[in-house]
User: What shape does this take?
Amino acid sequence: MAFDDSIKRFERIVAILIQLQSKRVVKAQELADHFSISLRTVYRDIRALEAAGVPIYAEAGIGYSLTEGYKLPPVMFTEEEAATFIAAEQLMLKYMDEHLGRHFLTAMAKIKAVLKEDQKDQLATIQPNLKVMPTRRLFNKNVPDVLEILLESISRKKQVIIKYQALNADQPSDRQIEPVGLLQANSHWYLLAFCHLRKDYRNFRTDRIFGIRRTEFDFEVPHQPLDYYLKKDRHPNRKKIRISVDKDVARYMKWERDSFGFVSEETKGDRVEMVFETDYEINMFERWFMMFADSADILEPLDLKRRVQTLLSEMVDRQHSPLPK
Assistant: This one.
């Protein structure tokens, strides 16, 4: 084995040890996927850790865990790893609610406490020169603990009651829900939960939650992990949309098209044909499409084309109306 390979294996074995300490149980397949190695290599590295005196408990079909009470000595960070803390801190503070943000700051203080002095100086230099500015409101300011309570609910499997403002409702209403998971997408936090009012799974945007309170009611429904509900084949109502756009204009659509379910594109001469599959209300897509409508055509569905024509007609009528005095 070459010297460089030996170093890489040593670094990987140390990283595996850190993974084992970070979770109660770690499956061999998780380690194989995380480090892009074979299961055979995982087994060999685990045996190396055991030979070095690390107390690893293995249970067939379950996974690996460290004997309770075993702890690593303080971890030393590289300069590159230390520099990532500032970016993480800025992102987390802007995308967390107020309560979780405070907990994150105390956690970061503990991490920074083990840094070397030159690394602390490095962070002090970077910090004032890195800013994150969210473009949208992520949480209602009157509900500073919404993420904290939702994560607690998922962990404890206890129902919560939220006061939620649906898009088509005039006033917020109470919803008794069983939170399944949280997703940050399109500059918003989305909550997937089983809604007892609708007797089905629903998506809720956190900025439309105007109140939240804990309950001691256990979940009544066994829920799958979040990824299960995000798979495309779980969404039979996805709408397929095909549009054709001038090649010179298509490049400007790349920045936001993923938010509307972009699937693929194909260049055909001086045009680009794009395919979308979207869960959005179709009127959200049509309003985004209107930004490029002078250089784009809707190929399908015809219903979308008609709705854009109607919207254009309404816009023309409105703009031709007399100005208010």
In short: Residues 146-230 form a domain with the SH3 type barrels. fold (CATH 2.30.30). The radius of gyration is 26 Å. Residues 3-22 form the longest helix (20 residues).
